[in-house]
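Aim 2 progress update. The chain analyzed this quarter is reproduced below.
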Amino acid sequence: MYKNHLISLSRRFYSTPNNSILSVYTNQNLEEKIKIQGWVRALRKLKENIFIDVSDGSCSKKLQVLIPNVHKPQGLSTGCSITASGYLNLSPKGQLELNAENVEVCGECKVEDGYPFAPRKSYTSDYIRQYLHFRPRTNKFSSLLRIRDYTILAIHNYFHEEGYINIHTPILTSNDCEGAGEVFTVLPENQRTLKNMAKPGVSLEEGYFNSKVFLTVSGQLHLEAAAHSLSKVYTFGPTFRAENSKSRLHLSEFYMLEAECAFLNRIEQVTNIVETLIKTVTSKIVDRHNEDIEKYKEQEIEFSWINKKFVTLTYDEAISILDKNKGKYNGDFSEAKGLTKQHEHFLVKYCDNVPTFIIEWPKHLKPFYMKNCTSDSSK
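Predicted structure tokens:
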């Protein structure tokens, strides 16, 4: 009985193809009969009709649906999920609108029982974090997820077109690529399993894998080995760092893009790859998701730099600029500590807000595996 009931529901809701709201706005085939599924973001009741704004997450736009009062389904409210079918037309104001012939509530939303978001009202990030399971329903966060999704796709497309091979480097590894000890140790929670796996004379920390194992901090070493066979490789996966920081600049978990390319002899070859990647991916995001980017306009986002050549400074040139502009940035420069985030922000601003490469660093400020400059053994 239960299985048959599920099958009948499936046929009821999915017997005809659904239209995403993105495809509705893209094609705009007026007077075409369509069916959409989504969530009610706003509801307005008039004398003869009900107007609802429906979102399905496929784009930042909502589709207005007109429902005659006589066809109002039971349980219709802000936040509920619906299936609506009818004909696509333009409203008297020229707005795309679905004149619904049939509307069914798939899942009710009891607003009076504590649904935390009211229509057409903005909420602070701190408030939204109290309801993480509803966060994707907010305009800003859903826009962020769509931008992130397309960014990942654009990155993969770029590397694929450039002939790179995508390598899935291990998440569990015995390597600490950075050598800083900022790793998370991996052990089974089940202590009985751990003790049974451990060989005589081996510590419990090494019992399960026969060595200490960590969550990866980088796939670099694996990529370097693969590049010696495949020439051009990259990985884009989860990375973990155990750092004593709670700022947004130091994350315990994040996704990191890393690439290795054999037979490069000059630093300019590397910077050209990075510049082309950033410009190509950013241009595609702006073209595809400009409306989602608009959700962040209060942060004054502009992209004129896409059409400009990235700036390249040597470390000595960067220090000279900072020395000549003391008092225009926060904090003093220290040769032992190198450049801080404030110094970097100032240098980019000094270079007309164009992304800036700094090359030829002092050896003591860079990891041991960095290639030495041929012109100066101290760099």
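DSSP finds ten helices and twelve strands in the chain. The two ends are 74 Å apart (CA to CA). These observations will guide the mutagenesis experiments scheduled for the next reporting period.
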